[in-house]
Amino acid sequence: MKLNENDHLYRARHSLSHLLASAVKELYPQAQLGIGPPVDTGFYYDFVFPEPVAADTLLPALESKMKDLVKRKIKFERFELPGDEALKKLQAANEPYKVELCREYIAAGEAISFYRSGDFTDMCEGPHIETTGEIPKNSFALDTLAGAYWRGDEKNVMMTRIYGLAFDTAEELELFKKRRALAMERDHRKLGKQMQIFHIAEEVGKGLPLWLPNGTVLRDELEKLAQEAEFRYGYKRVATPHITRGLLYEISGHLEHYKESMYPPMMLDDEAYYMKPMNCPHHHMIYREIVRSYRDLPLRLAEYGSVYRYEKSGELAGLLRVRGMTMNDAHLYVTADQVREETRKVMELHKYYYDLFGLENYWLRLSVHDLAKDKFVDNIASWEQTVGILREVLKELGIPYSEVAGEAAFYGPKVDFQVTNVVGREETASTNQLDFTSAERFDLTYIDHEGHQQRPYIIHRAPLGTHERFISFLIEHYGGAFPTWLAPVQVVIVPVAPALFDFAYKLRDQLLALMIRVEVDDSGDSFNKKIRNAATSKAPNVLIVGQREAQEDKVTHRRYGVTEQTTLPFAEFLSWIQDEIRLRRNSKPVNPLDKM
RNA sequence: GCUGGCGUAGCUCAAUGGUAGAGCAGCGCAUUUGUAAUGCGCCGGUUGGGGGUUCAAUUCCCUUCGCCAGCUCCA
User: Fold this and answer.
1) Which residue in A428, A419, A415 sits closest to A344, CA to CA?
2) Phi/psi at A104 (5° precision)
3) Could you give the CA distance from residue A71 to residue A595 in angstroms, rounded to a whole number?
4) Is the pLDDT reported for residue A179 higher than 60?
5) Going from the N-terminus, what domains does chain A have, and what CATH number goes with each?
6) How many angstroms is C1' of B51 away from CA of A148?
7) pLDDT of residue A42
8) Which residue has better confidence, A376 or A29?
């Protein structure tokens, strides 16, 4: 939810950032100011402190000073200064970062405005609240302290950013904190450990997850899903090696544009071999292997391909950001006439997947080039043409999207599906690119009706993203309570007593014969303990079998998170669960974590 | 990579400049149970690694590794 700058909360948050700066200046008159805008959950302000600071003592001290300022009902007063006076004032105050901004405002011919609140004055556009009396007691709190580069550029100094939380009321602040604590409970790293989905071993390496048996079930189910969907959409599956000669990446341009993200080469017979960071060049080689006719197009090559990228250590996070990943990749080689239709079908496939999982909280980003940045292929006409095509397709489909400059791939614009994970971090779940560069680089052609050579367009698409990232979202989306078709253990059979073990084994064998993942709890635990273990394991289906059931070949069926249970003939259960799995029903059980 | 923080048993967490403790999990024995923890016992730690200060370090200092938040980058 984005606030408008005239919203009271927006202005209150912005004003609180000034109070924070004011408190900092009181404690450290030498501290220099960066910027201090409002954000989704509050505000922050960046500082350069004259000495190292410690969060555990600094934040409470600043917070209590801010509370004092709020109590004093301080007025926010705006005034403007001519450029040279503003500059002088900031220079006199020893605010080099403000001076830098001020110079730019002057160059842009903008008015230079200041806000005075009590003893503190900051160059700022506003708007602000009238007085701090408008800020309810306990509706804000300082949160964390972190580093941030000046103007977001890693070549600049690192400042100290102090984040604060701020809401309309104290109750909303408390609610936010509670929700955040609850969200941590479904963090995929925590559930991934608890549910034995993946493990990142120090000995194996950072960002290189080991998939445990339960996690591998999730991967296998996603791959099955993709194989079926891609079959229906006319894709052909291919497979390619994990390492490749440098030559291929010279052709593709990866070594030119992407080298810092690639694992360094290994030398074999005086030649450099690289771990592959992307599958596309390999698919292009497959395309090029024979002469293609327009009759072959669209040619859709699909592969769940593993790639390795050298992400900076601080960027790694659980399964969300890793160094080795397997992606739901495919490349569509199409004629100019087919681009729109094929792009549309790719979007349709996305919708099918997202509906299947019940993923609703996402938005589309049309990621375009920014020729001011040197990472992009320099060909304005092609950028404009391909961006235009994507705009048209999205418009035709009536899908809302936002256009963001500088987020494109180096070889073409992208349509990214942006989702927010459970702890509020926004990530790209899947990405689709329209590539106008590679066909030429790889000299890919097809013969048209008239026997002339033409360049195909290439659509790169990965609707299910990478297993790593997509599964991290699924874990959090479901809070670990997967629908039956995805669940690592689909059925747990709990016999009431050891005398019933044989009956339970008989049911198990029938389920196993149908490829249903089932376990019998034949441990020495008490019956109550078994019920509890089955429930806490988040198994979607629990079958309780006792004497009563055994006599009539029935089972008592409990769904995860549902208290009512039904006793039904086992044959009926079998047909129900087979449908449940075959149709991949997203009968999302009530998850206790969804309550808030 | 950068800034800040955190590393105690498989997990969750105690404790202290003077020999490290609990619950859960695991294992064993007993119990054979009809809807969310049966009882008893056992095992489990070079307090992330290395170095230093000290009579003595898990505690203080340095260093290194890992993790967390943010920045940068990104599927």
Assistant:
1) A415
2) -70, -40
3) 36
4) yes
5) 8-175 (3.30.980.10), 190-478 (3.30.930.10), 491-595 (3.40.50.800)
6) 33
7) 93
8) A29
Nucleotide nearest to A55 (CA to C1'): B4
Protein residue minimizing CA–C1' distance to B72: A154
For A102, half-sphere exposure in the C-beta direction (CA atoms, 13 angstrom radius) is 25
The protein residue nearest B36 (Cα–C1') is: A532
Distance CA A209 to C1' B37 in A: 33
**Average pLDDT, stretch A384-395?**
90
Coil/strand/helix, residue A143: strand
Distance separating alpha carbons of residues A69 and A18, to the nearest angstrom: 11
Band the pLDDT of A210: cuts 50, 70, 90: very high
Distance from CA of residue A23 to its chain's centroid? 35
Termini Cα distance of chain A = 18
- Distance B74 C1' – A510 CA (angstroms): 46
* CA A152 / C1′ B51 distance in Å: 38
Closest to A522 in 3D by CA, of A500, A507, A490, A549:
A500
CA A209 to each of CA A86, A188, A202, A310, A320: distance values in angstroms, whole numbers, following the listed order = 54, 13, 10, 14, 11
pLDDT of residue A258: 87
Over residues A275-330, the pLDDT tens digits come to 999 999 999 999 999 999 999 999 999 999 999 999 999 999 999 999 999 999 99
- CA–CA separation, A281 vs A438, rounded Å? 8
SS3 content of chain A, % helix, strand, coil (to 5): 40, 25, 35
**Which bases in strand B are touched by protein, i.e. have an atom under 7 Å from a CB?**
1-6, 11, 29-38, 65-75
- What value, to the nearest 5°, has the Cα angle with vertex A54 and ends A53 and A60? 110
**What is the biggest distance separating any 2 CA atoms in chain A, rounded to whole angstroms?**
94
ipTM of the complex: 0.93
Q: Specify whether the CB–CB gap between A588 and A540 falls below 8 A.
A: no
CA A385 to C1' B19 (Å) is: 76
* Distance, CA of A504 to CA of A543 (rounded, Å): 9
